[in-house]
Amino acid sequence: MLQTKGRHPKPAKGVTQEEFVNFMRRAMTRVYELMRDPTVRLHWETALGPCPSDDRTRARYEMSGKPAGGWMGWEPIWSFDHPTIHGGRDGKPVLTALGLSSSEHFQLTANSCDLHRVIEHTHARLVGRFQSWLYEDCQAYDMQVYKDKLKSIFYHDNPVANPQVIASDVEKLPELCEAILEVEGGWPRKAFR
Predict the structure, then answer these.
(1) pLDDT tens for residues 13-72?
(2) For 145, what's the count of Cα atoms within 13 Å in the CB-facing half-sphere?
(3) 3-state class (DSSP) for residue 4
(4) Which of 120, 130, 179, 193 supports an S-S bond with 188, CB 3.0-4.6 Å?
(5) How far apart are CA 174 and CA 116, in angstroms?
């Protein structure tokens, strides 16, 4: 429970599917805005190689045209774990609500959410640091203080999400994929979790 000044402590409630969809709408809008920036597109092309230029090859990658004004090149493929708020096993309710086609969604195998290890590890580091601060400083604050501290930990506490930490998780993804394929989409060996 998080205590804030002037409020009674109350248990945290989970995120609803509606809240998740609303969050994703905001996130997707921001991502597509960023993708209009030539510098951002250049980063994508540096990582993925040049976008196909001929119409036939390009059509294989073209999505349902989220950004107004047509196709801009490489577009993100979205991926969610399997909780109910993410639309369950196949994600259809959330994909429909977000206007995404199945080609814009990477479906994880049932037991292999480890493919989200970059996010999961970053989240675990962030939560750990935030909880440590909460236990060390047991005062009740205004909600803004908690928000500011969380942002400070994420953006200014280097090991939480700096490029080197993220890159170490990304570099292990191909090996993780092989381990998941070995067990036909089941849980990979402990070393990969």
Answers:
(1) 677 888 888 988 998 888 888 888 888 877 777 766 666 666 665 555 554 444 444 445
(2) 12
(3) strand
(4) 179
(5) 12
CA–CA distance, 49 with 37 (Å, rounded to integer): 17
Residue 160, burial from CB neighbour count under 10 angstroms (0-12, 13-18, 19+): buried
Q: Is the pTM of this model over 0.70?
A: no
Cβ–Cβ under 8 Å, residues 21 and 98: yes
> For 95-137, how does the pLDDT look when each residue is reduced to its tens digit (9 = 90+)?
888 888 777 777 776 666 677 778 888 888 889 999 998 888 8
CA dist 188 → 18, 81, 88, 105, 172 (Å):
32, 16, 21, 22, 13
Residues 85-120 as b/e (b if ≥16 CB within 10 A, e otherwise) read bbbeeebeebbebbebeeebbeebbeebbbbbbbee
Within the chain, what is the greatest distance between any pair of CA atoms? Answer: 62
Burial of 59 (0-12, 13-18, 19+ CB in 10 A): exposed
